[in-house]
Amino acid sequence: MKTVDNFDFKDKKALIRVDFNVPLDENFKVTDDTRIEAAKPTIEKILKDGGSVILMSHLGRPKGKEEKYSLKHILDKTSEVLGVTVKFAEDSRGEAAKKASEDLKPGEILLLENLRFYSEEEAGDENYAKELASLGDIYVNDAFGTAHRAHASTTIIAKFFPNEKCFGLLLAKEIESLNKVLKDSEKPVTAILGGSKVSTKITVIENILDKVDHMILGGGMTYTFIKAQGGEVGDSICENDKLDLALEILKKAKEKGVQVHIPVDVIAADDFNNNANTKIVDVDKIPDGWQGLDAGPKTLEKFKKVVLESKTILWNGPVGVFEMENFANGTIELGNYIAEATKNGAFSLVGGGDSVSAVKQFGLEPKMSYVSTGGGAMLEMLEGRTLPGIAAILD
């Protein structure tokens, strides 16, 4: 796997696909610069070699050229994080991009305008990819968040750099961390899958059954499994058309010797809001008019034991509605158990939008071995798929 460490960038222009799709407030100020920080080691390596950097990214889902999605809004923050005044090309193609890239000197950084201002980006248009490719000498993909898309700048562009292409340090770390769970894991391996629906995780579950010893199922999908086994789930979220599927998963897990751990009690509420009345009930005896919104104390004790005995932990999805303070305890406690296991030598990988939000919100991020930057891309890798953006570099 070639990374930027395998290349000398002296006097070379590195064309880097980054994922700077960062959140902005109403004044167009960056509210979370994690993704910019994450790309910093790759950029610094290239500048240190004596090369220059051309950054390509998208922002949001614009319909054509929309001012509010212009990457100029992130220019100041990018310069601040990278410690270099970043130049800006007001287009990603044509004369503006060409001249800006030609004028670039070693040690300088240029940010191209939003790639998605052109529909050709998402369409994977070869001519657009060729135009982008003409701007640099070496292509670097450091955008895990978009590696599952066969877009012009993430996949198609690589064919114009048959020998001059590589992974950035962030993308390499993402692949390495996932392989540590899927291929080179130390046993016992525990996968914690939460979130609201079984249907969104079914392929992940099927793919990792051969690789894990324990599977903890929590969050909204709990109730589909409980109802499938004849339990009463009240008004809890439940996929009634997936009951047979839930039983099939449990059967497959048993056949493969995987121990499945499902909540035994929950914090139930009489309404879906933070101030609802609550009570602790057995997970299979939730009364009508009530719904399970967080893991209960007995469940957390049960999960704690499994997590602390694990050597490799994958966490994808919360075990409660952590966005509401009164139903965040289960997710916080689970995060604390994983942090403790990590401190004791386990490898922990957290990925998927909601789990990542949770570890950040509760200050747990530094206590995990690795927190993934790509929700959709990580899910697809867990499903066993080859991501086009990764395949294009390996090709």
Explained architecture:
With 395 residues, this protein is an alpha/beta fold. It contains 14 helices and 17 strands. It has helices spanning 34-49, 75-82, 94-102, 119-123, 126-133, 169-182, 202-208, 222-228, 243-255, 297-308, 329-343, 353-361, 375-382, 388-394, and strands at residues 13-17, 52-56, 87-89, 109-112, 138-141, 165-167, 189-193, 214-217, 232-233, 259-261, 265-269, 278-282, 285-286, 291-295, 312-316, 347-350, 370-371. A six-stranded parallel sheet has the order 3-4-2-1-5-6, sandwiched between helices. Strands 10-8-7-15-16-17 form a six-stranded parallel sheet, sandwiched between helices. Strands 12-11-14 form a three-stranded antiparallel sheet. Helix 11 links the parallel strand 15 and strand 16. The longest helix has 16 residues, at 34-49.
| Radius of gyration based on Cα positions | 23 Å
* Helicity, as a percent range: 25-40%
How many beta-strand elements? 17
Largest sheet: 6 strands, parallel
Calculate the terminal CA-CA distance, rounded to whole Å: 10 Å
Low-confidence segments, ≥5 residues, pLDDT <50? none
Shape: elongated
> How are the strands ordered across the major sheet?
3-4-2-1-5-6
Number of helices: 14
Strand content: 15-25%
Structural class: alpha/beta
Mean pLDDT: 95
